[in-house]
Each structure stands twice: as C-alpha cells, then as structure tokens.
Write a structure and sequence with these properties.
This is Preprotein translocase subunit YajC. Keywords: Cell membrane, Membrane, Protein transport, Translocation, Transmembrane, Transmembrane helix, Transport. Its main location: membrane. This protein is an alpha+beta fold. It has 2 domains: 54 residues; 45 residues, SH3 type barrels. The protein contains 2 helices and 5 strands, in the order H-E-E-E-E-E-H. It has a 5-stranded antiparallel β-sheet, with helices on one face. A hairpin with a 4-residue loop joins strand 3 and strand 4. The mean pLDDT is 81.
Length: 134
C-alpha cells in the first residue's frame, strides 16, 4: 500500500513538472510573437521616419505633426525654419515634429513591378493573337 502511494506521488510530480514546462514554453512563444507583431514593426517605422528627417534639404515641402505645411528654408542640428502660406510667415520647428516630406514621396516598387509584369503579359498575348491571325 505504501509503495503504490509513493509511485502515485512520483507520477503526479512528473506531470506537474511537465505542465510547468509547457506553461513557460507557451509564455515564451507569446512573448516572441508579441515582439514580431508589435515591437519590430514600430522600430522599423521609427527608423524610416528618422531617415526621412535626416534627409531633409532646403526647398523640401513638409507637413508637421500639427498639420502645418511649409517649405524648408534652413536646417540646423535639431530644428528647421519653414515658410508657410502666401504671407511667407516663418516658423522654427523641431525636427521631431515633421510628419512627412511631400517633396520626396516614396515610390511603391512592388506595385510598379507588378504593373510592368502585367503589361508584359498582355503584350505577349496580343503578339500571340497577331501571329495566329497571320
């Protein structure tokens, strides 16, 4: 009788240990998933925004986070001077307040490559139809 109780105790302890390992494994998988779903894309966006701000040049049309549109007149280390509107008002803003550079809109290369491929396919189909008619 004592032997069966001892045997049952060891198997129960083994199951508890396995359950704890599975729980920790599940938590680790969820943390890795959260990293790839939330943190990594945010860092990528931040790097792109910083690159856009670093590549500003005099004469670029920008939009601030407050919605003010203007043309860059001068650039300093952490601030820029912009000219807004027909009144030619000048405003000094911090670089981190720039939301977009309208002068350099990014080109979506994937969609343009797809359009080129579609055009090539349609041209090939037309050429085949022309050859069949002859």
């Amino acid at each position: 009788m004592f032997e069966t109780q001892l045997l049952e105790t060891t198997t129960t302890t083994g199951n508890n240990t396995m359950g704890m390992i599975l729980n920790f494994g599940l938590i680790a998988v969820l943390l890795v998933l959260m990293y790839f779903v939330m943190i990594r894309p945010q860092r990528k966006r931040q790097k792109e925004e910083q690159k856009m701000r670093d590549e500003l040049e005099v004469g670029d049309e920008i939009v601030t986070i407050g919605g003010i549109m203007g043309k860059v007149l001068s650039i300093r280390e952490d601030s820029i001077l912009i000219e807004t509107g027909a009144d030619r008002d000048k405003i000094r803003i911090m670089k981190w307040a720039i939301q977009a550079n309208n002068s350099r809109m990014p080109v979506d290369t994937k969609s343009s490559d797809k359009k080129k491929a579609d055009e090539k396919k349609s041209d090939e189909k037309l050429d085949k139809k022309d050859d069949e008619k002859k």
